[in-house]
Specification:
Length: about 160
């Protein structure tokens, strides 16, 4: 990645953080103009931005940047395990990606995690959907399954 591309990615990450911090929950909150998609309310909400396709020599990838925000009612966490669900505009899940966030999170403060992705398989319909569908045409939700809190306790959610 060139210096200009790295700089552009950093600016997009910062913009996504600002938008996630200033997002107002409403029925139309998923339709912001930046291309970042804000998830519906849960223990951990997610904003996804900067979806991109990378054609490699041996493998292709789809990458995107995520900003996770722990709900205000939760305790600070050490790690969270869950699934990012990508849905069509009607709420039908089209693709799931298992994720473990090993960085500590504090309630209400976004945690940037750029460069999340997966190896693209052109023969899988869900991968084809992810490639062809714009972020503005998706609903995105993070479903937490396990949480380890900063105080050493843990919780299984799903």
């Amino acid at each position: 990645m060139s210096d200009m591309e790295e700089r552009f990615a950093e600016i997009e990450r910062r913009l996504a953080l600002l938008e996630a911090r200033n997002a107002v929950p409403a029925a139309g909150a998923n339709g912001n103009s930046s291309g970042a998609r804000q998830a519906e309310e849960s223990v951990v909400s997610i904003a996804v931005s900067n979806k991109r396709y990378d054609h490699g020599d041996y493998e292709d990838h789809i990458w995107f940047d995520c900003d996770y925000t722990l709900s205000e009612e939760s305790k600070p966490t050490r790690a969270v395990k869950g699934t990012i669900e990508f849905m069509d505009l009607f709420g039908e899940v089209k693709f799931r990606l298992n994720v473990t966030v090993n960085s500590p999170m504090n309630p209400g403060r976004p945690l940037a995690n750029p460069g999340i992705g997966f190896t693209f398989n052109q023969f899988m319909p869900e991968h084809q959907w992810m490639l062809a569908t714009d972020l503005l045409d998706m609903k995105i939700k993070f479903v937490a399954s396990n949480m380890i809190y900063s105080d050493g306790t843990s919780q299984v959610l799903a």
